[in-house]
Amino acid sequence: MDFRILGPIGAVRAGRPVRLAGPQQRSVLAALLLARGRMVSVDRLVRLLWAEQPPATARTQLRKRISELRAVLGADRIRSWRDGYALRVAPGELDLDRFLDEVRRADLLLGAGRAAEASTALTAGLAWWRGPALADGTEELTEAEAPRLEEARLAAVEQRVTARLALGHHPQVVGELATLVRRHPYRERLRGQLMLALHHSGRTADGLGVYRDWRAELKAQLAIEPGRELRDLHRALLSGDVPC
Fold first, then answer.
1. Which domains does the chain have, with CATH numbers?
2. Residue partners of 191: CB distance under 8 A and separation at least 6
3. Low-confidence residues of the chain: pLDDT under 50
4. H or E element: which one contains 87?
5. What does the pLDDT look like over 27-60, one tens digit per residue?
6. CB-CB contact of 218 with 225 (8 Å)
7. Model pTM?
8. Residue 183 Cα to chain centre, angstroms
9. Beta-carbon neighbour count of residue 174 at 10 Å?
10. Looking at residue 86, what DSSP letter applies?
11. What burial class does residue 189 get, using C-beta atoms within 10 Å of its C-beta: 0-12 exposed, 13-18 middle, 19+ buried?
């Protein structure tokens, strides 16, 4: 079985998609998958399906969703307790776990100075993403779980940029970083990486401009300064004592 939550929620058996009935069934499946074999309480599942306004028949409807999942996944996949349910997931069956395995491998490779292999591992890990995580679940599920998954994806993207910068691929990552900064303006690590990439591409003035524009925007909108790491990098660019 191949379970998927990094994009639309789904399951594939022997190369064929398992038919899931709708957002509620997909959301129950995703919540059980995210629990990694631990029990998910009935109360939590009810909240993920109906937020703070469950119908009087919520528990009956939830039992029906569980029964439907057992029918398409196999009766032995889901265990029941009085107060909750758990889904059995074998190692390697969940796309999130495969992604995280590659991220952990990349961290070890970067620590060993093997930047090219780390970049390859991160590219392989990010390839498991097929769109926004939990894309077709209930609104409550997406709001509760998607932000931490997206944070993990962005951290992996930043780590891949770090590996590519270590390889000296500065001009090649400038365009990607500029796009990422526009999409995620408050991630100062990305902004710092863009400043570094521009500097090492012979465009120090543009790198300083990235900082200047961001500082002006922060002062105008929030009356604060950029973070310490970005300020330190700005001073390094001014002095010419810039890390690789």
1. 2-87 (1.10.10.10), 115-239 (1.25.40.10)
2. 181, 185, 210, 211, 214, 230
3. none
4. strand 84-87
5. 999 999 999 999 999 999 999 999 888 999 999 9
6. yes
7. 0.93
8. 15
9. 19
10. E
11. middle
